[in-house]
Structure formats: C-alpha cells, structure tokens
Amino acid sequence: MSAIEHVPPVAAAAPDAQPWLHDLVTVVAAPGLALSGPDGQLGGGADGVYRGDRRVLSRLRVTVDGREPAPVGGQATGTATARFVAVPRHLGPAGPDPTVFLERDRAVTPAGLRETVTLVSRADRPVRCVLAVELAADLADIAAVKAGADGTERSPAAVRPGEVRWVAPDGTAVAVRVTAPEPAGVGAAGPTGARPTLSWPVRLAPGASWRVTLEVVATGGPGPVTAPPTRVPWSAPEVAAGDHRLAALVGRGVAELGGLLAADPLDRADHVLTAGAPWFLTLFGRDSLWAARMALPLGTGLAAGTLRTLARRQGTRTDPATAEEPGKILHEVREGGRTYFGTVDATPLWVSLLHDAWRWGMPESEVAALAPNLEAALGWLADRAADGDGVVRYHDRTGRGLANQGWKDSHDSVQFADGRLAAAPIALCEVQGYAYAAARQGADLLDALGRPGGAAWREWAAALAARFRDRFWVEDPAGRYPAIALDGTGRRVDTVTSNIGHLLGTGLLDEAETAAVVRRLAAPDMDCGVGLRTMSARSAGFNPLSYHGGSVWSHDTAVVLGGLAATGTGPARDAAAGLVRGLLAAGSAFDWRLPELYGGETAAPG
Do the domain assignments include residue 605? Predict the structure, then answer.
C-alpha cells in the first residue's frame, strides 16, 4: 500500500470506488503498462496506457462504421503482449456466420505501447467500411486512478494526420503516432471535443486484409525506475517434478518477472524488481527485497542490484513527514522523487538479503562495499528497539502516513480476535523474527568483513528472543501461538494470522514453539485449499475478500512455504505440501499467472 497520495486536482470519489482489476487484461514492461477489458477497448475505470505513475492514455477505442465490434475474446499472450479478436457483425453477407474479423495485437514497451489493428475479410464479395480510433488522455496520477476519481480529459496540444500529442503542466508528454496508412480524417469527439478521432475508409476484397499500427510514446523526466538493459540478471530454471503443474507455475512466474524488471536511474547497471502492476510499478523496499531473495537460486545479480539501489537511498536524517530515519531502508519511491520511509520491516530484510546473497556467492568485494550501509541498518534496528521497550515497533505520529507499517499495511490489518483494532505503537510478531535474523546474520557479515560488533549483535538477538518468548505468546482452546502483535499498551493482539508463519526459519522459535506454529498454519481455518489465509476464518474480522483480513496472498504463502521447508520436520513437510497443492490449484485457475492476492471460501476437496 502507498502512503504517497499527492495527486493533481480531480473529481472527488467515494473511498470505496477503487476500480476493479480482476477481469482486466494486464500487459507490462516496466515502467510501461496497459490495462483493458477482454474486448481490448480502453476507456473507463483503470483502463489505460501507463508510464510509471502516470496514465498517459486513458482512451483508445476502435469502431467500425461508428459501431463497436462484438468481442470474441482477448487475453495476454505474454508478459508484455496481448491479442484481441472482435467481429463487426454488420459487415459481409447476412447470415449467422461472421465473415469479417477485427484483430488487435498489443505490445507494451517501457515508454508506452504499440498496437496493430487488422481487418480480415472472409466474405465472398467486397466489403467497405470506415474504421475509426477515438483517443483521449487525462494524464492522471496513478493514485487518482486508484482512488476511482474521474480525471479530466485534456485537450491535445497538437493534432495532425500522423500524430496526436498531449502535454501535462509538468512537462510530461504523450504522442500517439500512426504508421502507414495515414488517416484520411481527423475529427473530434466527446462531450468537450477533447477526443481526437482518426478514421480510415477501408475497402476489402474477398480474402484480403488491411492494417494500421498505432504507437503510444510517453516522454518526461526520469521516474523512480527506468527501463532495464535487455539482459535479465538471472538464469532460466529447469523444473523436474512428477506434477507437470509445478513446471508451468514456476516457468510462468519467472517469465512474469521480466515484465516487472527495471533499472535504477542513478545507475542503470543495477537491476531491481518493481512491486507489481498496476498500482506499485515502482521501487518498493520490502517487495523488491523479498522478490530478490526468492530469486537467489537463479543468481545473485538481481539481489546485488536491489541492495545497491536501496542503499543509495538509505535514510540519513530524521524527517517525520517522510518517516526517514538514519539507517532506515525506504518503503516506496514515487514520481518526482517523492520518497516515503514508512516501513518497519524493509531494513532488517535488507540485512538478510545481503547475508543470503553473500552465502549464494555475491562477490565479496561487492558485499564489502555495502558494509557501511549494513552498520547503519543495524544501528537503526538498535534505535527502534531502544525506543520500543526492547522490541521493534512502529508509529505514524503525523496522522498522514501509513497507520500500519508491516507488510499488512491496511488500516484494519492488526486487530484483536474480537475485531477491535490495535492502537500504536505496534510491535509485529514477524518483525521481531526479521530483526532477530538480521542481528545474527549481520553479526556473521561483520565477522567475515573484519569489522567489529559481531558478538554484541548476537547478544542483542538473544535478548530480543527472550523478550519475545515472554511477551508474545497467547493460548486458546487449540493451544499456544504467537500474537500477531503487541499494541501500544503492551497487550497481546490475539488474532491468529499468517504473520506467525514468517517466524519460521528466522531462528527465533525453539522446537516446541515451531511445532505449535506449524499446527496452527496447517489447520483448515488458515489453509483454505488454495493457499494460506492472511487471517483465521474463526476471527471476528475475517472476510475472505478483504485486503489483509482473510484473503490469500501469493507471496505470503511462498514466504511461509520457505519457512516450513527450513523447519524440515514431518508435520512441517506435510503443511508445506498442502500449501503447494493449494498454489498449484490457484495457478491453474489463473493460467499460471498468480495475482497479488485472491480470495474465496474453502476449496472443495479434490
């Protein structure tokens, strides 16, 4: 979730008006993105062509003789490509079978989009029609689009037969260029005449086809990320498994990473993964770190680039407005250099990624170059614990940032089992696990690099573990488990959540505690058959379609799977197998392109 919502003035929208995304065709080549319905038409809701945080084209609708063709089907054909087929049913001989088809082949680029529109005739006689393309650009900030606000369509700065161009007040510009043939007509449509309409008279002989290509190119200042070099910084995995679905899921997942891959504009040699399309196609501390960590078996290049990109922006001062603090790793960067540091977990996760990349073979010279950033990050951890009665807490004191600053950063994600919301300052259970692991891993790095402090950090970790064991554990009729958090008064927030799964593999839990967590995660109120619920179905606040209160997050399930695998006990292996089966079932439903989150009731057996 984003806390940076500074947007141009737009019409007000209800807080529940966020556009639906589940039925959209999404194609992405960071920082470029296109969203449309399966009919391929752009215009309404979140539809549009985006470059970074800006919707550069809000309307691209194709008509034939003033009518919208009847859609037949449309889907992504790759990470950055899609194909749509429709039928202008009024063309050709009368009868039940269509004889003229309209095809749209879409390819997103980091700067915009290239789309070829083709009319194909199977009619037995010549066909005549007028094909038109209606365009509009609101140049809206993505935060305004996400809020459901209706952007004002801007009048174009230039309209010529071969090009239509818009320019925003900040200098961001977008041009729609037409390759041959040039349109015969250029008109205007829409309530204010702000929609240029390009038209072509078309004559198709039997069996003939006609096509035109549109190119959308956005220009402007450098954004938070830029287009990556062409070579991806990882190797292609080979998956051998008895269940063919596993290879399909992994293969599609790795391919999709290519669409999210970007580069640091401060050093384009450093790759980084953006957090996700459409709302978070930018640098996000936590998300970029987790993704790089999971990709380590494919190489250390992505991890090294991610570490350096975030280290360049590491906090150096105290600024309550942005939540910046010395040594802290950022939460997100937005257009115009707007940086927000409201995250409690990115800093320990940065330390853990540095450690794991080192263990996977990141060159020691590159690791050593980040030693000052490592020491600063560990120093931030010590300061947070000192301010938080010995545990790591967060608190937005401005009232304008994120109220919750763990990975579940929605306003209602930290609640008691009876549905009451927890009050800040809040200490999340998994953050204590991250901090414990970071302290011990940081100590190993300091020792290996010949720098002081290793022994002190191991003592710090041991003291944190003792405090966690004393303060976080609660019990109900099903047994003991860690609370999701401590609230500002030190009360244990007793909802059963997936957060406890993130403790596995950190070293914070002993054998009996690990077994208790595994039992909770494997229960049907948490494992719903298609992944791990974010909140127990027995909790008062449970909602299977909420953002963090019962939905299933792909990455959350994967993080817990990693912890279960590291645990290695029989019950942990069984729980992991159940979650893998769930992800495979979900993957098959989503054509192996797992979304950020999904939800529903418990899956039927089989």
Answer: no
Domain shared by 198 and 236, yes or no: no
Q: What is d(CA 505, CA 131) in angstroms, rounded to the nearest whole number?
A: 60
Domain identity same for 97 and 231: no
Q: Within this chain, do residues 139 and 202 fall inside the same structural domain, yes or no? A: yes
Helices (H) and strands (E) in the chain — how many of each? 12, 27
In whole angstroms, what is the distance from residue 23 CA to residue 38 CA?
7
C-alpha dist (Å) from residue 24 to 45, 82, 540, 545: 10, 11, 32, 18
Q: Is 90 helix (H, G, I), strand (E, B) or coil?
A: coil
CATH number of the domain residue 162 falls in: 2.70.98.40
DSSP code of 391?
A: S
The DSSP H or E segment spanning 63 is: strand 59-64
Whether residue 347 is found in the same domain as residue 204:
no
Same domain, 209 and 226: no
Residues 135 and 232 in one domain: no
Side chain identity at residue 243, one-letter code: D
What CATH number is attached to the domain comprising 402? 1.50.10.10
What pLDDT shows up at residue 584? 97
Please count the residues of the chain.
606
Residues 137 and 237 in one domain: no
Amino acid residing at 375: E
Q: How many domains does the chain contain in total? A: 2
476 part of a folded domain: yes
Query: pLDDT digits over 139-198, tens only?
Result: 999 999 999 988 889 999 988 878 899 998 888 888 988 877 887 778 776 665 668 999
- CB 259, CB 29: distance < 8 Å: yes
Which DSSP string do the residues of 188-202 spell out, in sequence order? EESTTS-EEEEEEEE
At 605, give phi and psi (nearest 5°): -55, 135
Residues 6+ apart with CB under 8 A from 391: 385, 427, 432, 464, 467, 468, 471, 486
The residue ranges of DSSP E strands in 297-447, in sequence order, are: 332-334, 338-340, 427-428
Q: Are 423 and 394 in contact (CB under 8 A)?
A: no
HSE value, Cβ hemisphere, 13 Å, CA-based, for 109: 11
Do 67 and 176 lie in a common domain? yes
Place of tokens 């702000």: 194
Place of tokens 């089992």: 417
In which domain, by residue range, is 209 found? 25-219
**CA dist., res. 84 & res. 73, Å (int):** 6
345-365 per-position pLDDT tens digit: 999 999 999 999 999 999 999
Tokens standing for 197?
């309409």
Phi and psi dihedrals of 193, rounded to 5? 70, 20
Q: Residue 413: enclosing H or E segment and its boundaries?
A: none
Across 156-165, 255-264, 312-321, 371-380, least confident range? 156-165
Q: Is 112 left (phi over 0), alpha (psi -120 to 50) or beta?
A: left
* Residue 488 to residue 518: CA distance in whole angstroms: 28
